[in-house]
Design a protein that fits this description.
With about 400 residues, this protein is an alpha+beta fold. It is built from eleven helices and 13 strands.
């Protein structure tokens, strides 16, 4: 009896608050300490992203901060979750809280202290229930099913009798370091593919001075990002038939992306790799990092070079660069699913789930309606995407290659 009471007394009190971007940005030191202790890093919860949302968009950002209060010590940050108020993807006229924040962010799990995962999430969900200004439905998208965030959300919802529905699940490619924390292209590509990479590089080198360039300094990253925007807009995403999907053609997203990438670079959390031929950039890859995890963000290439598979060549080079110093343990492709070209090269998979959490005890009719609509809508959308990626896009790329000299 006495020992159990002592153990209980040693447990810290847990609290949560709803903060804005300025408050979160003021906690840079506490955030970095949390990243070192966290169970699962997420670059899309970084302060730089919160600053970009606050400075470049009109979307209100609701940042849940969880704290552990140890007796006689300063409160310790044990959880961060960035949420926005939006409508569900099915467009029902019902407000929900959503993570990640927009279409340029690809992981929605909270960042949690490894020793307080469930307690931190419980405090976060509890403060949502007590805030009359916030919706009681949470669309938690792109959650790693093997990660601590997923387990904590499921357990916290179970303990509080909240209704949690798994709306959709899929896989995306990832690459893990091996041995001493490094990986090379030779360990992930078949002999046939490695021979093909060598052949393509040789053919490109015969046309001029072929170089790989890395950008890390904030000012370099900022200038290279503008070059990336031009390259992306000149490709298939920039065509009218794609309804201006290139970032350059979407002013609000462009402003957000510019601030986010430069802000992350200032924190040492963003880099850009490029391939140049006689000084002309024909492929660029932007990658991000948080803790010891890297995240593939965006890639673009000049379609005049399509026959040389510039995306695969650059990703091969990027992989070697990122893992070379042993500070990265895993590389998340951030692709939506395994229909990407990268999934054919990288052997590991990350199981991703989208969740709907109704923080009304026992659930509500609104929650059941949104769960049904989201499930049906996403099934239809997945079918359309598979059809496009399996049949339409390959046919288009084959046509592009045939038209190039």
């Amino acid at each position: 009896m006495g020992s159990s009471r002592n153990v209980a007394e040693l447990q810290p009190a847990i609290s949560a608050e709803i903060a804005g971007a300025p408050r979160f940005l003021s906690l840079a030191s506490e955030w970095r300490q949390l990243v070192e202790r966290c169970a699962e890093p997420n670059v899309f919860m970084e302060p730089a992203l919160a600053g970009a949302m606050d400075g470049a968009t009109e979307t209100d950002l609701h940042i849940l901060l969880a704290w552990a209060h140890h007796e006689g010590a300063q409160a310790q940050l044990i959880g961060v979750w960035l949420l926005v108020i939006a409508r569900p993807s099915s467009r029902l006229p019902i407000r929900v809280l959503e993570a990640p924040c927009n279409s340029l962010t690809f992981l929605g799990s909270p960042v949690l202290d490894r020793d307080h995962t469930v307690a931190a999430v419980t405090a976060m969900l509890d403060i949502i229930t007590r805030s009359p200004a916030l919706p009681t439905l949470i669309c938690a998208n792109h959650i790693d099913r093997d990660g601590a965030g997923y387990s904590a959300l499921v357990e916290a919802a179970r303990q509080q009798t909240f209704r949690l529905t798994r709306i959709e699940h899929r896989q995306r490619a990832r690459l893990d370091a091996v041995g001493s924390g490094t990986v090379s292209s030779s360990s992930i590509a078949s002999p046939k593919r490695r021979a093909e990479f060598r052949r393509l590089r040789k053919r490109l080198a015969e046309r001029g001075d072929l170089r790989e360039v890395s950008y890390r300094k904030p000012e370099e990253v900022g200038a290279a990002f503008q070059e990336f925007l031009d390259l992306e807009a000149a490709g298939w995403k920039g065509r009218k038939s794609r309804r201006g999907q290139a970032i350059r053609h979407k002013p609000p997203l462009r402003a957000f992306a510019e601030r986010m990438i430069v802000g992350l670079a200032q924190d040492g959390c963003a880099g850009i790799e490029a391939l140049r031929l006689d000084g002309r950039t024909f492929a660029m890859n932007i990658w991000l990092r948080s803790g010891r995890t890297a995240f593939g963000w965006k890639m673009a290439y000049d379609e005049d070079y399509a026959k040389w598979s510039p995306g695969s060549l650059l990703m091969n080079a990027t992989t070697d660069t990122i893992f070379s110093d042993g500070t990265i343990d895993s590389f998340d492709s951030c692709n939506r699913d395994t229909s990407s070209a990268l999934a054919k090269i990288w052997p590991e998979r990350r199981e991703i789930a989208d969740l709907l959490i109704d923080v009304s005890p026992g659930g509500s009719w609104r929650g059941r309606l949104v769960a049904l609509a989201e499930t049906l809508f996403r099934r239809g959308r997945s079918f359309a995407r598979r059809t496009y990626k399996t049949y339409v896009k390959p046919a288009y790329l084959r046509l592009v290659v045939r038209r190039k000299p």
